[in-house]
Amino acid sequence: MQGVIIRLFMENGRILFVSQEITPFTPESENALMGRHLPAFIQEHGREIRVFMPRFSYVSERRNQLHEVIRLSGMNLIVNNCDHQMIIKVGSISAVRMQVYFIDNEEYFSKGGPLTDESGALTPGCDERLLFFSHSTLEAVRKLAWQPHLIHFSGWFTSMIPFYLRRINKENAFFSGTKTVLSLTADSFKGRFGEELEHKMKSDGATAKDLRIFHDLDYTNLMKAVILYAHGVVIASPNADPELVRFAMENKKNVLPYNDDQQVFYEQINRFYDSIIGSNINN
After folding, report:
1. Least confident of 176-180, 207-211, 256-260
2. CA gap 145, 188 in Å, rounded
3. In angstroms, what CA-CA distances link 67 with 61, 89, 102, 205, 275?
4. What's the pLDDT tens digit per position in 48-80?
5. Exposed site from 68, 97, 121, 210, fewest CB < 10 Å?
6. Which are the contacts of 46, defined by CB distance < 8 A and separation ≥ 6?
7. How confident is the model over 155-199, as pLDDT tens digits?
């Protein structure tokens, strides 16, 4: 019996974390602290992990000792009918022996500036950066030949992960069976993505259903769209939008409530992964 339990655990062992922020690479916030501590906890408890985030311009390559991963870099991705080079860099958090992969591109990240202005409104071109990051992350994971059983993504900038997961599976079954979990925190932005985002998604293979869901996107509508695609939702903040929490529950999503005891909460999340993945995935 013990051998069966160990076997099932190992089969469910690969978790991909995609985070908008991770401390110490970015300033401390709810997202950044969870992006740092949760993957380390999950790794310490026997699961195999990979961690990805954007290489925003304020993430110093020199201070954080980032270096390019040549074997993963160099692919061109098409966004808005233009080629954009995907560059992958890697850094580490030595205290917990955790590597972090960074998605970079000169136009979108190295020189891209912040996602929002001082008032919290979206900056121009943010829609293309959003699409490029999510698409690049999944392509990089494919190039690693590392198939995750589950993707846990947090921060609104990671919100196109489920869309690209569906799109890529139309062309290649690499992510077949991969489940997704969304962290709901208190992050947000002002304003909305216009119809241009829908046009760019359509050129990337969006279906009529996708375009209906990802329509008229302010922060609340964007997160509702993502909830509809996700297999599970973790309420990762006591200040998460109550409307979004209700929406997840009304749509019968697997929802893990917030717990302010970090140790207990992370243990609950670890068990939550198993409930989402199930026991039918082969290693």
Report:
1. 207-211
2. 33
3. 7, 5, 10, 33, 37
4. 999 999 998 888 888 889 999 888 887 888 787
5. 97
6. 9, 10, 13
7. 999 999 988 888 777 777 899 899 999 999 998 899 888 788 888
Alpha carbons 39 and 152: distance in angstroms, whole number: 10
| Cα 183 to Cα 17, 24, 153, 168, 217, distances in angstroms | 11, 20, 6, 22, 19
| Helix (H/G/I), strand (E/B), else coil: 197 | helix
Say if residues 87 and 73 touch (Cβ distance below 8 Å).
yes
Q: Write the pLDDT tens digit of every residue in 105-123.
A: 988 887 777 888 888 888 8
* Domains of the chain: residue spans and CATH: 2-277 (3.40.50.2000)
- Contact indicator for 135, 54 with CB cutoff of 8 Å: no
CA distance readout (Å), 231 to 29, 78, 215, 225, 255: 25, 28, 21, 12, 9
Residues 201, 205: Cα–Cα separation, whole Å: 7
Query: Which own/partner pairs from 173-178 qualify as long-range (CB within 8 Å, at least 24 positions apart)?
Result: 174/142, 174/147, 175/138, 175/142, 175/147, 175/148, 177/149, 177/281, 178/147, 178/148, 178/149, 178/150, 178/151
Question: How far are the Cα atoms of 15, 29, 95, 97, 130 from residue 24, in angstroms, in the given order?
Answer: 21, 11, 11, 14, 22
Is the pTM higher than 0.70? The answer reads yes
Q: How far is Cα 97 from Cα 178, in angstroms, rounded to an integer? A: 25
